[in-house]
Amino acid sequence: MGEYAVKLPDVGEGVAEAEIVEWHVAVGDTIEEDEVLVDVMSDKATIELPSPVSGIVRWVGGEVGDVLAVGSAIVVIDLADDGAAPAPAVAPPAPQPAAPAPPDPSTSVPPPPPGA
After folding, report:
1. Which string of DSSP letters, residue by residue, matches 25-41?
2. Domains of the chain
3. pTM over cut 0.85
4. What is the predicted pLDDT for the residue at 92?
5. What is the pLDDT at residue 21?
6. How sure is the predictor about 113, in pLDDT bands with cuts at 50, 70 and 90?
């Protein structure tokens, strides 16, 4: 599973920020694509922000009454499982080569004589 950060879109010409009016989701909620996440109000309009993806809400970026800048993350969603096994967060360690066995004295070859 990956994460998707939903950002506050440009809600109108010349609008640089918007106020959170009402949350429709909470952390831990399972949501579907196009489900309304939050209502935000600019000085020109109140709009509903739909989710562009399905998944589980992991973080919400403010409380009712908070003002956020356009482009700010407003919700983080863990993407829904697509049926594939999730990738491990960390690759498993590579197998270590086996340590060489100590020499068996019964099969040792004596060193060559000096000067040979």
Report:
1. --TT-EE-TT-EEEEEE
2. 2-79 (2.40.50.100)
3. no
4. 43
5. 97
6. confident
| Nearest-angstrom CA–CA distance, 23 and 78 | 18
CA gap 45, 91 in Å, rounded:
48
- The single residue listed with the structure tokens 């340590």 is 99
Greater confidence (18 vs 116) lies with 18
Q: Which two tokens stand for residue 38?
A: 């939050």
Please give the full DSSP string across 39-99, using - where no structure is assigned: EEE-SS-EEEEE-SS-EEEEEE---TT-EEETT-EEEEEEEPP-SSPPPPSSPPPPPPPPP
Instruction: For residue 90, name the pLDDT band (cuts at 50, 70, 90).
Output: very low
Q: If we measure between CA atoms, which residue out of 7, 70, 62 comes closest to residue 44?
A: 70
- Tell me the HSE value of 64 on the side-chain side, using a 13 A CA sphere: 7
Tokens of 88: 């491990």
